[in-house]
Amino acid sequence: MSTENITTENTYEHHEPDMTKGRIWKVFFYLLGLTALEFIIALGFVETGLIEKGFAVIAAYIILTLLKAFYIVAYFMHLKFETKVFKLILGIPLFLLIYMVILILIEGDYLGLYIYK
């Protein structure tokens, strides 16, 4: 009976060269800051009555949420490190979905104003 040296390698390990612990913590603190800013706007300004909840506040919430979504998708889901073709494959259907939602909202507004008076 012979003994063999068997080395085990983790062949499934995938490491992005730009995703270091420092980068992960940096993105974490960006996300923490954006979330804190949302809470400051919601609880500090809107609830106390310093600013009224209107289009500007809702637009700020949407922009902050989209920024957080970008950081999560780009860094934690590693989309930032993918090829441009793969980004297009994901981006074009997303763009078409947003376009469809906008058209549905326009059509619904038309129906609400002129047909269902």
Describe the protein:
With 117 residues, the protein is an all-alpha fold. The protein folds into two domains: 19-81; 82-117. The chain contains three helices and no strands.
Which properties best describe this structure?
117 residues; mainly alpha; 2 domains; 3 helices; 0% strand; flat
Topology:
Layout: H1 21-46, H2 55-76, H3 84-115
Mean pLDDT: 80
Helical/strand content category: mainly alpha
Number of helices: 3
Largest sheet, if any? none
Query: Which shape, going by the Cα principal axes?
Result: flat
Q: Which spans have pLDDT < 50 for at least 5 consecutive residues?
A: none
Please give a quick description of this structure.
68% of the residues lie in helices and 0% in strands. The chain has 117 residues and is mainly α.
